[in-house]
Design brief:
Blueprint (H helix, E strand, L loop, with lengths): L13 E11 L7 E11 L6 E4 L4 E7 L2 E2 L1 E5 L2 E5 L9 E10 L4 E2 L6 E6 L5 E4 L19 E10 L3 E4 L2 E8 L2 E12 L6 E4 L1 E3 L9 E2 L2 E3 L7 H4 L2 H12 L6 E2 L1 E4 L13 E4 L7 H16 L16 H18 L4 H19 L13 H18 L1 H14 L7 H12 L4 H8 L12
């Protein structure tokens, strides 16, 4: 895709419409067998094309049922069909592969990401930005979201959870087949597949969206106070951002490292160690839960065309987190703004301009708090009514459409009727911190 943040990821010439993943996870050593069927549209004449896949032992690959020639260099699988695929045509690729997924190191987080396992042997996925390829042969870039079907085969007492709706569960002796459908487009880094000693809470269908959670059994008695706030979080955000974009919302509480959470689509992941502490700890856990749920609008429903515009995801999510804290009575937007302004000069000095991160600085405070300041400055500049119209138009007009910063800047000028060129230059592309407009 030519993205400098994740060089080598993604492939031009193809647009993946759907992934049908059959994952056999009955081997408790961690080995999985995968049948990965992709429905793809050619965006140019194709004599060959490539997909991303890291590790794993690759077996036969077919295109429209005919065996194709494959070659691998690094994490790229080049597939040569038996005939040219014309521009605009739909075709089906099926890959079979197996192995123990090996996590990939990330330069920004300093941790290995992908299909991960807890000390107890439970698995879960943390794949942002480019580690879905550790178990999915895919166009592993956010600019190519697709719908997903999951068939997950487990054995014994293992439970499987994934994005979207649980549409089927069939037991045959010790084995269980779980079927999930994510029928809204989803970037590959937002995929969640969790297998192990998880408890699936009964879905709450009292209102839309449906709330359903998956919780590692050791934490099942500790999560209730925090997860009970999900409906309240969604209701608050819908009042400003527009309708929740998916049919389901919930949280996977995993036995994962306590260093980060992730906005995996419709089923955000958070570590079990964050639940069950003192009241102030619970408030902080709910605040982070609110941050990840806000991403369902910002980054999930409206995907990025390039990772370099990450401020659009994390700036809105951090600002939404501030707004949630004000709603919950634990802070105010004004206080959060003042605190971030005291740090922001240092952030720009260390990490550069908010809207121009490097691969190493993709998850820096500048892309979170610094970008949230840009959002708050815009709100103070255009006023609440116009700001809300900008945000609601953004989440509706660009749903499932990969976006760039320029798209948001143009929309803000369109809705506000103001010349905001110098505003965005200062808040996104300068290493000098502009003054924050007065509160409104």
């Amino acid at each position: 895709m030519g993205d400098p943040i994740t060089p080598g990821d993604g492939s031009g010439g193809i647009d993946v419409a759907h992934y049908d993943l059959d994952i056999d996870a009955r081997d408790r050593t961690g080995r999985i067998e995968v049948i990965d069927r992709l429905e793809i549209e050619a965006t140019q004449d194709l004599t060959a094309f490539s997909l991303d896949l890291a590790g794993m032992d690759l077996g036969p690959v077919t295109v429209n049922g005919s065996e194709a020639v494959t070659s691998r260099v690094g994490n790229d699988v080049t597939i040569t069909p038996d005939r040219t695929i014309p521009n605009g045509s739909r075709f089906v690729v099926e890959l079979r592969y197996d192995g123990i997924p090996e996590p990939l190191p990330d330069v920004a987080l300093g941790e290995s990401l992908g299909w991960l396992r807890s000390p107890a042997g439970d698995s879960y996925v943390v794949a942002e930005p480019g580690a879905a390829k550790t178990f999915i042969a895919s166009n592993d870039h956010p600019s190519d979201p697709a719908t997903f079907s999951f068939t997950i085969r487990t054995t014994g007492t293992d439970t499987a959870a994934a994005n979207g709706e649980l549409t089927g569960r069939t037991t045959n002796g010790p084995d269980t087949v779980w079927n999930y459908e994510m029928d809204d487009p989803m970037a590959t880094y937002l995929v969640q597949v969790a297998i192990g000693d998880y408890e699936l809470t009964p879905p709450d269908t009292s209102d839309t969206p449906t709330i359903r959670n998956a919780v590692v059994r050791s934490a099942a008695t500790k999560v209730g106070p925090a997860l009970s706030r999900i409906r309240e979080i969604v209701d608050l955000y819908e009042s400003r951002f527009g309708p929740y974009p998916f049919d389901e919302v919930g949280c996977l509480v995993a036995d994962s490292p306590g260093s980060f959470a992730l906005e995996t689509q419709s089923l955000v992941i958070m570590p079990a160690v964050w639940f069950g502490g003192a009241a102030e700890d619970s408030a902080e856990t709910v605040r982070i839960l609110a941050h990840e749920i806000s991403h369902q609008w910002f980054g999930n429903a409206v995907p990025l065309a390039r990772w370099g515009d990450m401020w659009l995801n994390e700036g809105f999510a951090t600002w939404a987190e501030w707004w949630w804290a004000e709603h919950a009575g634990t802070s105010t937007i004004a206080r959060e703004t003042d605190d971030a302004m005291r740090e922001a000069t240092g952030w720009r000095s260390e990490f550069g301009a908010v809207g121009q991160p490097s691969a190493e600085n993709l998850f820096s405070p500048n892309v979170y708090g610094g970008a949230a300041l840009s959002i708050e400055a815009l709100r103070r500049t255009v006023g609440n009514e116009v700001f809300d119209r900008i945000v609601q138009t953004w989440t509706s007009r660009f749903a499932s459409t990969p976006v760039r910063s320029a798209d948001f800047e143009a929309l803000s000028q369109e809705i506000s009727g103001m010349d905001l060129a110098s505003f965005f230059d200062g808040w996104l592309r300068s290493t000098t911190l502009p003054p924050m407009p007065a509160p409104i």
